[in-house]
Amino acid sequence: MTAHTGHWPLVAFTSLAIAGAGLVAASACFELLYGLVSGRLVAAGAGLLAAGLLVSLGHLGRKRRAGLAVRGAGRSALSNEALAAGLALAAATLAAGLDLAGAHDRAVTAIAAAVNAAFLVSIGLVYRIRGQRTWRGFSAVTPLTGGLAFGAIAVQTSAGTGDVFFGTVLFVAADALIFSRRWRDVAGIAFTEATLANPWSIHRSPLLGARFYLLDVIPYFLLAVLPMPLAVVSAAAGLVVDRFGFYVLAVQHTTGHEIAGVEAQIAALARTPQD
Amino acid sequence: MPALRTIRTVCPRNCYCTCGMLVTLDEGNRIVAIEGDPDNPATGGHVCLKGLSYARRQTYPGRLLTPLRRNASGSGFEPIGWDDALREITERLTRVRSAHGPEAVLYYEGSGSHGALGGLSMAFWRQFGGCTTTFGDLCWPAGLEATRLTYGGNFHNDPALTVQSRLILLWGHNPAETNVHQWRLILDAQARGARVIVIDPRQTDSTDAADLHLRPRPGTDAALALGLAREIVAAGLEDAAFLDAHADGVEEYRQRVAEFPLERVASITGLDAQEVRALAQEYAGTKPALLIAGFGLQRHSRAGQTMRAVALLPALTGNVGVAGGGWQYANLASHCLRPLTLPPEQAAPRAIPVSQVARHLETLDRPPIRAAWIERGNPAAQNPASHRLRDALARLDLVVVVDQFMTPTASLAHIVLPAKTLFEEEDLVTAYWHPYLQWRAKVLPPAGEVRPESDIWRALCGRFGYDTSYFPDDRESFLRALLPEGCDFTLDDLKARPIDPSGSGGVAFADRRFPTASGKVAFASDEAAARWGVDRVPDYAPLGEGAESPARGRFPLQFLSCKTRDRIHSQFGNLDWVREVERPHVLDIHPDDARARGIKDGERAAVWNERGRIELAARVTPGIRPGVVHVLEGWCHGGEPDVNALTAEGITDMNHGATFYECLVEVARA
Amino acid sequence: MSGAGFLLDLHRCVGCGACVLACRIENGRVDTSAWRRVLPLNLRRHPAGPTYFLSVACHHCEDPACLNGCPSGAYEKRPDGIVVHHEDLCLGCRYCEMTCPFGAPAYDHATGVMSKCHLCAHRVDAGRLPACVAACPTEALRCAAAPGSEAHTTGAAVLVPGFADPAGCRPGLRFLTPKGARRTELFRSLEEALKR
């Protein structure tokens, strides 16, 4: 797969879905931990998730066959994700509905948290493709940690207090830690003729760095001063950069790359050409 | 049931293979399959990528389907009807003839499409009062004449016998690119233990697979051949019995080869003396050994003498007239058709050498050339001094070009007539590698408003009120009448399968009867001296523009422009299917030469000499000799055609060939 | 091993691309992407290594990434080993395009579904060779699934310099290594060097 294989719908879909599911899961966690019941936040999360799923249809060549996507559940990571998405949306909608109707239910909230977290995990598993160096390892966990970090920042902001909840610190720190491992993994991939054929690979450090600062650093410090919507904006931007970078920096080890690697080895083995 | 039908035909390109082809059409006359004809023993059940690409070429966007006339502003073309086109051509030809005489018209036909009916153009021109034609050939004539002088005729073993060779020596030949069926047979022989040796200044797809590769300086092959002969004689490895019985002039030849000791050969060719000796011993000591010479070996001014020197090695070693052995250059066994009946020719027809068209367009007088008709060729890209040729064509009063696509030549025309494809007219097609005569079927009706050239000539004759009886009413009976007198096959036989009309069986000169004056192999030739003014025996002289010439002071690099399998010259190169798989178009330059000029791989480089200048990306590769650079010929679909801006309008020492590879250049970063 | 796939003789393949064109004609891929590609190795002819060509399409893997990942189950591995794609089950999600490390599945914007080399299953079922194999003018490309054709020879290599199995799919492609005195030596020394 090249970095540019119709990735804009995927960037949009995953940004919205991760933001939405992350918001639902974080809200649900904060509800359970700190009693911060906010039906609006859960509903916003469900809305983002729904929007994301709608946008994901834009990626399909045959939109009307979308329902076929769950046929491979159990075997195909993508099928699992599709199923999880549906369940996550259902749970989020239920939890939001109960909250907004004033009938907050801890069990439903817990389920919503769990199912949306599971959905975030399933996104990472979809991309944990053998041969895709930039999507394996810690990169598979970043949808979960990134989504939770975003959600935590949003909840923290909307809570409107000057105190930073420990949950916020936890989620943001966890994401910072996990993502820094992804950053190291990706930046550690040697530049070869093949990787350089992707015009974005030279910009990988700025891209990864921007994501790190936008999602983990800036919002945290902003919130430490006072809660402000800018923190959410920064975190959202960080998520989009995260997803954009996720696709454009993809390095799949194709046969072409393998050949390029061997040719580099041949050049390195240079003897003086006889004549 | 799908109504598929399969028709047997043949590819008529200027190519060794001349593949038998099976074309399958559906009921909508769309081509659904192209395969090799298994009944052609040489090409078997395969065609090459170009043959397959006919499925795309037949209906390719951009294929010309109507006559075109240059529009008033001169910036493009507008479609016109045949009536208008022919009327205008008639008027303008008549005007030129009135003002300057019929020889003010140049009729130029290239090698773009082979078939007996191609000769019908003369049915018009001779009635027109004559015209200026070309003589000679851009490609192979020196080698043909060298072989004829030496062996009496151009025949070689049936290619199928290649598998019996124990040693195959390819000299200036790259069959992995230019004769894929021969290449398959060579690989088969190699799989059975034959040694494959290639002599070529470049590394190629053929040298990759060879067991041994020698890289002499371009243009020094005569010295190498004479040096090898000296080693063979010195080692007592010549076939004395064969020479006694079937060779003439051997003593003179021995004296000549004695002038080429190893040190001298090494110094001239740049090869190692020991590898020359080893090659001599291996070639002479392995039986049967097959020597295949390519046309590239003779694209310079010393062509004939070089080819004579190389051609004698099989005779020297007793490899002639044996299965698995031989001298292989060209095989004219299938060239047996009767000549067309044409109007009588003018008394002293004017003709110009085909390798000097630009010069003659510029300088001919009494009368000057004022008009040109060009068909089956693309001289504005493919001929030496191509850009001068383009400029000269642009100054003419009338240029008519017949072609399938808007080539660089067609773009200079006043009127372009759309040309047929191989599927759109029947004909008889000979070959020059295998001995098979083949029937080219009419597979499809001409597309759009296309008319085959034979119909164009007939129509033009009609316009001028000339006798049209020279043209076929029914092509089948017309062509049937061209089959050789007393042949033992009918046209229906030929339609059913390719036929070898020579009756010579597989081994050329098996009977050791050589159609030379003496009936023997000519190691020395009076005729060569008398006819061409060359030495009676083969000799070596440095190229005028070559490794030893003073011009190297200014232009130190020898420039080669060799063939690619992705095209036949400039044909096929415009097709998307071909461009997807084609080799990159680059300047091959050795790391030493590149470093000295500060050129890095992939950078744009300029190549120039006093004749012209081109620019393209450089590929730094050890696969080319230092002192030699290379660009593939035939590229003209992505911009300006290039290599022939640099080549010279030279003529070979015998038989009026071209000297494309005798070219010095300099290279620098662009 | 039994199973489907191609056998490529690296000595005989000259990288001409006839196989690519034959596939286009047979499968009606006139102005869409081709299902087969030819990749040169060391076309620059660096003297430290051999030069050869990899003609690749779908490798009909034993553990196909396309099949494993397809959410709708549009891929099927036939008993004879050929991996086929059922267009009517394809939603055009292009996941197989990501999971296949060999670039076999191709997306067609006009139809919105994927497609790939199916080893000319329609020809194989009729006892004929795949179009690419039949067309190869040097007889470098062969196939193991067709009746009457050579089974994968015991001398055949699974991996060669330039061809790896980065995703553990166990591709069905096999190679006959180069012959000829020069290229054999270069190939051998390159393999040695890569092992280090």
What does this protein structure show overall?
The complex is a heterotrimer of chains A (275), B (670) and C (196). In chain A, 70% of the residues lie in helices and 0% in strands. Chain A is built from ten helices and no strands. Chain A has helices spanning 7-34, 39-57, 77-100, 106-126, 142-159, 166-187, 193-196, 204-225, 229-248, 255-268. Chain B has four domains: 5-57, Phosphorylase Kinase, domain 1 (2-Layer Sandwich), CATH 3.30.200; 68-131 and 339-420 and 446-481, Rossmann fold (3-Layer(aba) Sandwich); 141-332 and 517-532, Dimethylsulfoxide Reductase, domain 2; 550-669, Barwin-like endoglucanases, CATH 2.40.40. In chain B, helix 7 links the parallel strand 9 and strand 10. Chain C has one domain (6-195): Alpha-Beta Plaits (2-Layer Sandwich), CATH 3.30.70. With 196 residues, chain C is of the alpha+beta class. In chain C, a hairpin with a 4-residue loop joins strand 6 (106-108) and strand 7 (113-115). Chain C contains six helices and nine strands. The model of chain C has no long low-confidence stretch (mean pLDDT 92). At the A-C interface, helix 3 and helix 10 of A face strand 2, helix 2, helix 3 and helix 6 of C.
List strands and helices in order, with pairings.
The complex is a heterotrimer of chains A (275), B (670) and C (196).
Chain A: H1 7-34, H2 39-57, H3 77-100, H4 106-126, H5 142-159, H6 166-187, H7 193-196, H8 204-225, H9 229-248, H10 255-268
Chain B: E1 5-10, E2 20-25, E3 31-36, H1 49-57, E4 68-70, E5 77-79, H2 82-100, E6 105-109, H3 121-128, E7 133-135, H4 141-151, E8 167-171, H5 175-178, H6 180-191, E9 195-199, H7 205-209, E10 212-214, H8 221-234, H9 240-246, E11 247-248, H10 250-257, H11 262-269, H12 273-285, E12 289-293, H13 303-316, E13 326-328, E14 351-353, H14 357-363, E15 371-375, H15 379-382, H16 386-394, E16 398-403, E17 415-418, E18 427-429, E19 438-440, H17 453-464, H18 475-480, H19 491-496, E20 521-522, H20 526-532, E21 557-560, H21 576-581, E22 587-589, H22 591-596, E23 604-609, E24 612-620, E25 628-630, E26 664-669
Helix pairs in contact in B: 3-17, 4-13, 8-11, 8-12, 8-13, 11-12, 14-16
Chain C: E1 6-9, H1 18-26, E2 37-41, E3 52-56, H2 65-69, E4 75-77, E5 83-85, H3 95-99, E6 106-108, E7 113-115, H4 121-124, H5 131-135, E8 141-143, E9 174-176, H6 181-195
Parallel strand pairs in C: 1-9
Antiparallel strand pairs in C: 1-8, 2-3, 4-5, 6-7
